Structures are given as structure tokens and as C-alpha cells.
Amino acid sequence: MPAPLMQLEGVSRTFGNNLALNRVDLDVYPGEVHCLLGDNGAGKSTLIKIMSGVLTPTLGTVRFNGEPVTFRSPRDAQAYGIGTVHQDVGTIPLISVSRNFFLGNEPTTGWGPLRRLDHASANRIALEQIRGMGIRRVNDADQLVGTMSGGERQALAIARAIYFGAKLLILDEPTAALGVKESKIVIDLIAKARDDGIALVFITHNATHALQVGDRFTVLIQGRTAANFLRGEKTREEVLNLMAGGEEFEAAGHGD
Amino acid sequence: MAAMEQTLEPTAPPRANPLERLLQIAWIGPAFAAVIIYIFFVIVGGSSGFFTVAGTAGWMNTAAELGIIAIPIGLLMISGEFDLSTGSVVGASAIIVALGSGFYGLPVAYTIALALTLGVGVGCFNAFLVNSTKLPSFIVTLATNFILAGTSLGLSRLISGSSNVSFKDGGWAEPILASKWNYFNVSVLWWIAAAALAAWVLRQTRFGNWILATGGNADAARRAGVPVSRVKLILFIWTAVSASFVGIMSATMYNQGNAAQGQGYVFQTAIAAVIGGVLLQGGFGSVTGIVFGCIIYGIVSLGLFYTGWPTDWLQTFIGALLVLAVLTNNLIRNAALSRGRKS
Which residue from A217, A224, A214, A229 is spatially nearest to A245, judged by alpha carbons? Predict the structure, then answer.
């Protein structure tokens, strides 16, 4: 068992009198998918905001590679190799695949006033990376991102984060807005990134998606860790039950 | 596992057919429209001199003076903002040069520098208000336009007793700002230079990518590390300095400055950009398109004169073109986004 890449130890966060997170522990390992499950308001967003440097914990320690760290900003967290892919992905529909891929990190060639975008290598790399994610339908780096499906845009965002050095990838409800087929593309991508040794945090409402790809599971209820288990330790019904707050829950037809 | 492989494989990679490919070029619409409109006026107004050197120079000069401002306006609109203060900047810059060098007899270099500084100042002011208040630039720059128009009129009248000040000797500025060749004003060359610079910036530089991204989705751009506020600041300054330049050029060319001049540019520049294929919502457009937008504006304003019809109808014509352009832009945008969507 390798050492965890990121560890949260007894992390709490308050907003005024409201305790959003209450002494939560979380370990994220390279080459593993850690699924973060829970109902709305369970504290998932607060937790990922702490992991991605948007918020700082009120109490508790965040360790990266064993060292205690304090992220002052999302940029700070990015510098450690923490990439976040938001639900809305953050791609720009009216510019091309390669312009999106390199946005903010555009490669240039030439010198002084003649310094210009290196379209040739940008196009080549962007296309390579996206096709490497298994998205074969994209065959032109000049294609506008608006012509791509939701799943393909997720793939673009994930490929981009990994290419720019993400060792830990936080995926915030990546399948929430997608249909069955598109969700499958994203789930396959998650599995692929895990096989490449990336540490992933996968936030979802959907127990089926979580169980398909998750290695380690944390269920949050009202800011507390309600359960922490490994793949195979709990059945789908038990997981659904936990997510519903521990009450009796009719599993059939729910959660997917 | 076999099913998983299947979804990853391409069904059939969509290849764009030649027509779709053509539609994806942002400036194809305005270019096509410019040719049609040109042919129309050659047929209707050709006999009275539209299709002569003088006629050609006429519409080109109009397009050039408009274009020097419309090109940066277009970039600003691509970044998702408006600037309606250019009209006053033109007037204020013209009156600064005329008052300073014509009335007070200050060196031309000094007053030109002063006018350009005003441009930088107005750009900073607009950008500061837009960036810090998040108010729509439409209203912010409209306010700037009124404040500056009133101030230059008031000050001009206070100082010289008139809103119109003559400026006889441009000195070294004459040849570079006011020379003519065969009816063609030197402004045509400045316009070409402005277009070449803007096209280079938009297509070939990182800053150009940031302009497109800022207008396309400012939040996503910010998250990717694009300095969105700085992009807008630079574009507001670029626009205002270009307006300043046109004011200086006009004072030198016509040997006078008028504090009230230039208000036509307020809407004409935005119209030329939209006719040139810039999306009103931002995020899409091309410099070549804007150049064709200016050409269309120039051809229509001069061409109508040559047809012998009453020029009262000019605005009607431009208005109709604008509606057509907005509709076409939306169509082209949707076509550009639809490729491969359905599969």
C-alpha cells in the first residue's frame, strides 16, 4: 500500500454558528478513486473547497505527501498538483479545442514582438491528449468546443488538468448533468486516470456510478463522516441507505 | 468489457463538408455581403461616378476613419464589453489639439501627446468603473460619453469663446496624418496598420486567446488563470487611444477642431463591428470581418450619394443591414456549434 497523497485529519469548518464539517478524516491514494457520497448539504462542497484551496479549515490538518500544508488560494493548491474539474467544466464553447486546452498556458514561439502562439504544437498536443482519453470522435483541434458533447467536454477538462500536472484530481459531480451514455464515457475516463496513477476524488449523488469505479468510499451526513469503507465491503443497498441518512430506504429505482 | 470498448470507438468521425467549412470562417458572411453591396452600387451608381478613383477613395476614406476605431471596438466587443464613449474622445482630442496648438500656439507634439494621454485616461476610467462595479459597460461608457462631451464643449467655449477652433499649421504632423494621394487620405494606411496589428493580436498571441475566452465565459477564463480585468483594461485603453488618434487626425486634416464632433462614431463603430460578424454577446468575431463591416458602411454611405437618391434614407438602409447582420451572425454561430452535435 503506497502512502496517501492527501490526508485530511479532523478537519472542521464553521460558517458563523453553522458547523458545516465536523472532524472529517479522508485519505486519498495515488491510483485510487475515492468516492465522496452524501446528500445535498452534507458538506461535500465544503470539503472539496478545502481540498482545492478555496476555503481553509477552521480546525484540523491537511497533509499533502505527508507534509502539513495550508492552501491560501486555488492557484496555491494547483501548484501542488491538485486539479479541480467543476460540474460546468469551464470550457468555452466558441473557441477551438486547442485554444481551450491551453487557455492560460498557451505555448508560444518566436521572440520579442514576434512572439506568437505555437498553433502547430498546441493543436498536436491537444488532439493527442484528448484522443488519448479515448475520445476518438474529436479529430480536429480547430473544432469549436461547442460542437462537443457534455462527456467530451469533461474529457477535455480532465485531459487538460492531467496534462498540466495534476496528481490529484477532484471531480465535482461530473456525471450529474449527463445522460447514460455520456456518463459512461466519464466513468471510463475516471478508471483510465486511476490506472495511470492519478489520485481521484469523485463526488457524486449516484451510488451506481460510485460503485462502478470507486476503490474507497466516504459517506458524509450533516458534516460528519457517517461511513468509511473499501470496495466490496458494502452492498449497493447499504450504500444507498447510508446516503439517505441511515434511515430505511427502498433501494429499487432510486439512486441511478 | 466489450460494451465499454464499443462506446469509446468512433461511430463515424464527422467530416465537415466544404460548405460547413466555409461557414465556419467568421468573416465569410460580411465578405459576401460587401461584394453584393458593392456590385449593387456599381450597377446603380456607377454611371454617376461611384466606380471611379474618386468614388473609390470616397468610400475607402470613410471606411478607414471609421475602421481605426471600429477595429478595437470589435475586439472589446469580442471580450464582452461595449464602449460608447469614443465619440466624445474624438471631439475632445480634436479640440485639445486645436485649442493647444491653434489657439495657444503650443508645440504640436505637446498637444498630440496630451490628447493621447486623454485617451489613455478615458480608457482607464471606463475600465476601472466596469471592473470595480461590474456594471454593464454600455451604461458606464454612455455616462463617460456625456460627461466628456459636455466638458469639452464647456471648456472650449470658456477658453476660446467658441466650440470650433481653427488649427492652421500641423507642422510635422501634416504629412503623416493629413496627406493625400489621388483622393486617398493617409488614414487608409493607418487603418490597414490598425487592422494588421489587431488581427495579429487576436489570432496569433496569448492575449488574443484571452480576449476570446473573456468574452466566451469570463468565469471559466478566470479559473484558467486569465487576468480578465487586465484584458478589459488594455482593450478599453486601446479603443480610447484609437478614438483620440482619429480626433487628432481630423483636426490636422480639416485644420480645425470642434468639441461637438465625433458623436457619429458612438454607434457607427459598434454597427460596423456587428455587420462585420462580431457577436453582441461577445466571444466570437474576427478582425477581417470587422474590416469588411467598415467597408460595407463606407460603400453604403458613399454609394447612396452616387445613386442620386435622397441620402435621407441612409439610416434606414444601415438599420436594415444591421438587422440582417445580427440574424446572420446568430445563424452562423449556431451552424458553427452544430457540427457533429447530433451523432
Answer: A224
Enumerate the residues of chain B whose CB falls inside 8 A of the CB of residue A135: 8
**Interchain contact, B216 vs A117, CB within 8 Å:** no
The grid coordinates listed for B222 are 478566470
Residue A256 confidence (pLDDT) above 60: no
Count other C-beta atoms under 10 Å from residue B335's C-beta: 13
Q: What is the ipTM of this complex?
A: 0.85
Lowest mean pLDDT among A200-204, A231-235, B18-22, B47-51: B18-22
Distance of CA A133 to the CA centre of its chain: 15
> Nearest residue on chain B to A75, judged by CA atoms?
B225
Name the residue of chain B whose CA is nearest to A103's CA: B224
Interchain pair B341, A103: CB under 8 A: no
Bridge partners, A116 (sequence order): A109
Question: Do residues A116 and A200 touch, judged by C-beta distance below 8 A?
Answer: no
Q: What is the pLDDT of residue A73?
A: 84
Cβ–Cβ < 8 Å for B311, B305: yes
Closest by CA to B237, choosing from B72, B74, B88, B70, is B72
* A102: its cell numbers: 491551453
Strand A199-204, strand A33-38: pairing: parallel
CA distance B67 to B236: 16
User: Using a CB-CB distance cutoff of 8 angstroms, which residues of chain A are in contact with residue B219?
Assistant: 90
Mean pLDDT for the stretch of residues B224-231: 92
CA distances from A116 to A106, A108, B224 (A): 10, 5, 19
Question: What three-state secondary structure class fits A143?
Answer: coil
Whose cell is 457534455? That residue is A150
